[in-house]
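Fig. S4 source data, part A: sequence.
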Amino acid sequence: MGSHGVPPFFSGKTNTPDTLSVIDTFTATTGTTFTRTGLNFGANVPGRVIIVTEGVASAVTQKISSVTIGGTTATMAQDCTSGAVGTEGCGIYYAVVSGTTGQTIVVTYTASVAPLFSYAAYRLIANSSIPTGGTTNP
């Protein structure tokens, strides 16, 4: 993460994102792996990054095991666990991928989440190209 929680591809830039649009949303009451298929990531243009946000309230301790976006392992931008560690929390993940339509996002936890899992996926088109890598929040 850059300064003030800003993802590394925006650090030190004075410009702002051109477009942020919702790709998909989903809520479930139980499960370990959540797979969303047939997603349209839009045109593969410079500056496009796919962002996944997730939130969970669970009766058992669990953590995110992995997030893949279009077959690419996503980078954690923020882990915002609150309450009893592992039972309530949220996270923000991102990846730069080349796919456009028919894409898949998979979120996997270490244990079944119940009573609630919620996620949203976004397409961000930044004013300038972003790097294909990033840093993981410790």
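Fig. S4 source data, part B ends here. The two ends are 9 Å apart (CA to CA).
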